[in-house]
Amino acid sequence: MTEPSPLAAFARRKAPSSLEEGVGGGAGSDAASLRERCIPHRHHPLTPPLKRRGDSRWRPGLGGAAVHSELFASGHEASGAGLALALALDQSCGDERPFLWVQDKAALRRSGRPYRPGLPPALRGRLIHVAADSCEDALFALEEGLRCRELAFVLGELAGNPRALGLTASRRLSLVAGKHGVPLWLVRLDAVRDLSSARMRWQVAPAPSAPPRWNPAAPGVPAWRGELFRARAHPPGEWILSALRDGLSASSLDPSSGQSEVRKFTRSW
Amino acid sequence: MSKPVLSGCCKQPAEGARLEPRILSIWCAQLAIDRWQLAEGVSAAPFALVGEVAQGLRIAAPNAAAREQGVRAGAMLTDARAICPALAVAPGDPAGDLAFLERLALWAQRWGPWSALDPPDGVLVDVTGVAHLYGGESALLADAARRLTARGLTARLALAPTAGAAWALSHYGEFLPGTGRGTILAEDGGGARAGFPEGAARSGIPAGAPPPCFAWSPSPDGGGMLSELPIAALRLDPVTQLVLRRLGLKRVGELSGVARDALARRFRSVRAPAANPLVRLDQLLGRVPEPLLPVLAKPVPLVQRRLAEPIRHRSLLGRVVEDLAEDLVRLLEGQGQGARRIELALWKVDGEVLVRKLELAEASRDAAHLVRLFAARLDDLDAGFGIELARLAAPWCQPLALSQRDLEAAAEVHGTSLAACIDRLSVRLGEAAVRRAELYPSHWPERAQRWVSLLGAPSTSVDGLQHRPAPPARPPVHGTLWVVGPGERAGVASSREAGQIRPLKLLDRAEPIAVIHASPDGLPRRFSWRGQVHEVLRAEGPERIAPEWWRERGGARLRDYYRVEDGEGRRYWIYRHGHAADGRGGLPEWYLQGLHA
After folding, report:
1. Closest CA–CA distance from residue B27 to any residue of chain A (Å)
2. Looking at the partner chain, which of B413, B445, B540 has a beta carbon nearest the beta carbon of A215?
3. In this complex, how many residue pairs, one in chain A and one in chain B, have their CB atoms less than 8 Å apart?
4. Which of B28, B316, B460, B588 is most exposed, with the fewest beta carbons within 10 Å of its own?
5. Contact A178, A143 (CB under 8 A)
6. H or E segment at B470?
7. Alpha carbon of B413: minimum distance to chain A alpha carbons (Å)
8. What is the pLDDT of residues B532-583, one digit of tens each?
9. Which of B408, B497, B596 lies nearest to residue A117, judging by beta carbons?
10. Cβ-Cβ contacts under 8 Å, B493 against chain A
11. Domains identified in chain A and CATH numbers
12. Which of B445, B492, B505 sits opposite A114 (nearest CB)?
């Protein structure tokens, strides 16, 4: 048994002080040891320190706070995988380890296979592709990938709302990702927003690209319209995201401010 | 005949210097027939083993009765049947002969510290400084002859300072003048040593068929007895033998009659020893060294458990496999090896053997990892009446240095290694499911990348051909997706990739689309794909990619690729298959092949 049961997740939510009491007290040595195992020695990625005073809004370059994110996208375009790769690159810049790209059969048929010459240059040589037959196999591959210390991140692409991908499975992935610190980017193709334990959930749609300088009639740098509709550490918001040559730019479309407020956060990859 | 060339070869070392080498050559003249007779029994009828060649069946090895009737090795079977109609044949087994020869070479290490194969039917043993243990060289030869005869092998033996000379004497010793079967040839000091027949009688060799034995020591002052040997004793290939025969050179000694310069000029460009008589002559005389490749016994790490009670339950079998894996790991640890391939064989009560094989991405010595990999493979076993013997072997091992053990707790905290992750994925999903993309030098988009397994050896040849260092500084090109930047890792993007914009994902099969374009050869205006109409607002193209004529059939059509973006910002890679005037089919069709990010 290498994996704590999903029930152990609830023990994690408690504050560390009460946990320490539980270890000393006679609350059942099993439960105590389980809790002890569940809390790594370093800073826990599931409970990052929230900056109360500063700006808690999401912006590019925030770093590795989120370990499990979901992106909902249409299966008839590559915007989900494109934004997931851009966000992953933004989060783990300078990391040169390989990454795992897991697709189940439906996702493979619907949206195609990764194409190495079209990957971002920093990722081209690092792709390990897993073609799983079923959703169960894909979840197994995702979990094994998250448990591996030599992967930069894990990208999953699952189509629809399969029965195997319930809250339990989602929570299980979050726990493994949190424990080993390997970020998981799960792209859900043509799926409805079901229950999930992902820390950040995006709705992705393509956006018209900025016209290139030399041929304005040609498609330009890829742009997406990303709506962060559920996040633990950030208020929801909507951005136009674009993968520039040297980083990810985000222009906020804030409906509360009346007019679309554009702010650019650029971070060099 | 001038003999000085043959003399002065192996210089006698001073007293106390290193020993003069002595090589024992064992030639099993009828290895294949002897093996057959050992297995099937001796028959007096004409019999031959045949092998299949391009022209039909050829005689590989006839037995004595067939040879008396005139059947020769190498003859066509039909010719041999014409000579000897009663000839019985059976297919030969060259691979089995070679395996037998390997075992024989290991067995022959009883006479010397190491031995080498001399395929197809000989063994060379280094017996330098060994003979006194047997009471002299003649006693050593007598012992070898007796034991080989007892094994049922027709062997001819020779002892000489070089491998070439020993080989020549064992194959062609009877061509020397004044030698019969079992002769000691002694040239040292001119005095003849004790003759072999007495030694043979003393060792108790069956008087009926003492195998021919020769021992030769070169004399210090010269006297090349080997000059009478035929040219074939030089281990030359048939073509070279034919050349020499046409030159009129039939005996080894005649080579020295010709000016060495002339021969050297003739065989100047020949490097292979088997085709260059001068090299072979020098090897025979010990002027140039001839290293022999020794045969080493390499036992396969193997552990097994005999079970007192046949087991029929999966949980018990799991326990047994765990024990076996721990034993194997201990064994491998002692040898400093890690397993790459593992075979689990389970003997059932009814004699059937179940075999499960595993291959690992990296040499491993982790018992828990092995057990975990096997766990998925054992569920579909049919134990029948029970399993009574389990054996775990590692036929393929690689050196793996001792290291601190990856404790379960450590794996829990620090995660697994990439190799372990890939092993687990490959075992559950199949090897073909876990792959990496490799560039391939092709213009055709779907051929420009290949999926290769991660379990095999990494092949970097293709990447190495294509990857050049990125240019040091490149002016920023606005509007280009994923341009190669100056700060990028060298080797990530090739120069071929840099100028092109390729989609992030490629459909396995390009899907047909219906396209409306503004002018007959103009940019596409609107297309429908998967039941949805896309208005093309921006497009770039065409990028014409011609079929690769060296791979495709003649009628293959070219492709005109367009990058398009529709009103909602969806970016696709579409192409027109052929053009209307190319004469290779009807109106061109449109396909959607890739999805841009």
Report:
1. 55
2. B540
3. 225
4. B460
5. no
6. none
7. 7
8. 999 999 998 888 998 888 888 878 889 999 999 999 999 999 999 988 888 8
9. B497
10. 121, 124
11. 8-38 (no CATH), 68-257 (3.40.50.300)
12. B505
The single-letter code of the amino acid at A72 is: F
In this structure, the strands spanning B213-217 and B183-186 are: parallel
> Which of A128, A137, A269 to mutate: most B Cβ within 10 Å?
A128
Check residue A11 and give its pLDDT: 32
Contacts of B179 (CB under 8 A, 6+ apart): B173, B185, B214
CA atoms of B346 and B326, how far apart (whole Å): 17
Compute the distance between CA of residue A49 and CA of residue A43 in angstroms, rounded to an integer. Answer: 9
Fold that domain B30-96 belongs to in CATH? MutS, DNA mismatch repair protein, domain I (3.40.1170)
Whether B482 and A121 lie within 8 Å, measured CB to CB? yes
Nearest CA in chain A to B413: A180
For residue B479, which of B502, B503, B501 has the smallest C-alpha distance? B501
pLDDT tens digits, B391-445? 999 988 888 887 665 555 666 667 788 888 898 899 989 889 999 998 888 889 9
Distance from CA of A194 to the nearest CA of B (A): 25
Q: Which amino acid is at B272?
A: A
Helix axes B418-429, B367-375, angle to 10 degrees: 20
Of A85, A114, A219, the CB nearest to B571: A219
Distance from the B568 Cα atom to the nearest Cα atom in chain A, whole angstroms: 6
Q: Are B10 and B20 in contact (CB under 8 A)?
A: yes
Q: Residue ranges of the domains in chain B?
A: 4-27+121-285, 30-96, 302-428, 505-595
What is the three-class DSSP state of B565? strand
| Chain A residues with beta carbon closer than 8 angstroms to that of B437 | 114-116, 127, 129
- Second CATH level (architecture) for the domain B302-428: 2-Layer Sandwich (3.30)
Q: What is the pLDDT of residue B376?
A: 82
Tokens 């995201």 correspond to what residue? A241
How does pLDDT run across B87-112, given as a tens digit for each residue?
999 999 999 999 999 999 999 999 98
How close A57 comes to chain B (CA, Å)? 25
Residue A123 CA to its chain's centroid (Å):
17
Q: 């050559």: which residue's tokens?
A: B25
